[in-house]
Amino acid sequence: MKSRLTAVLAPELATQVRNYGRLMRIDKPIGIWLLLWPTLWALWLAGEGHPDPGLFVVFVIGVFITRSAGCVLNDFADRRFDPYVERTRDRPLASGAVAPGEALTLFVALGLIAIGLASMLNQPAQILAAIAAVLLIVYPFVKRFLSIPQFVLGAAFGWAVPMAFAAQTGELPQLAWIGFGATLIWAVIYDTFYAMVDREDDAKIGVKSTALLFGDADLFVIAGMQVVMLAALVFMGLRAELGGWYYASVGIAACLMAYHLWLARNRDPAACFKAFRHNHLIGLVIFIGIALHYTFNP
């Protein structure tokens, strides 16, 4: 009897675990990469190429936990909107595969893990972690009231940069805030591409975004923000006294940005989504440039 019960329950349990994984977007790691790369920029810059190994582990795990918690809370907040958006109607909460109470329980569990990780940091980093938590909780709801939720997302993603500097050095130099600014602008860029995918559905259901705010000027505004981000990256390199490897990576990033604009030139949803997904390569290339500088200029 017990073995039969186990045979019946095991597949259901496995299915539900998979649903929780989908709710956390484990099957779609693009968000992890977009959050991870600026975090690694900051750790390498703050540690001058030699970040503390313990901090490296804490921040990498923290990236995974934070992004997962953000996805769970976002889907909870959007559970009444997602069924009406083609791209999101099959999400676990929207489809009913996961109950709202289960989602909140999962969010609390991830939050407790994040608190445990934050407790391993120094006091300045813990204070910044508390602010990061507020940004994480606020973001899913601002799209109901503000046309610039992408800027709030950018602040949430970019906050890992000053956190890493505070954890590594106990200080918040100008370099940390330049990196924060570059990351914030970058998040607005790629999340506007993302919002362009759902523009028509969002307009119908009343969800606000920069894609709707910018309207027909969207690509022009994105191009302007790309220029601002590149300027911030150059300024970051100057402040950190980085060399040729880094500036070569900035040049490659500029070429990638131009490619993303070309992809989205007709505002085709599939092409805009490709531009969004492709953006993580910018973060990777910049990190490689930073790492190569410290490798060959110890």
Brief rundown of the structure:
The protein has 298 residues and is mostly helical. Helices cover 78% and strands 0% of the residues.
Please, could you describe this protein's structure?
There is one protein chain. With 298 residues, this protein is mainly α. The protein has a single domain (23-296), classed as UbiA prenyltransferase (Tetracycline Repressor, domain 2, Orthogonal Bundle), CATH 1.10.357.140. Helices cover 78% and strands 0% of the residues. The protein is built from 15 helices and no strands. It has helices at 2-23, 30-46, 53-77, 92-95, 100-118, 123-142, 149-158, 160-169, 174-197, 199-205, 210-214, 218-240, 244-263, 269-278, 280-296. The longest helix has 25 residues, at 53-77. The radius of gyration is 20 Å and the shape is globular. The protein starts with a helix and ends with a helix. The relative contact order is 0.11. The model has no long low-confidence stretch (mean pLDDT 91).
Series of H and E elements: HHHHHHHHHHHHHHH
Estimate what percentage of residues fall within beta strands.
under 5%
Sheet with the most strands?
none
Shape: globular
Number of strands: 0
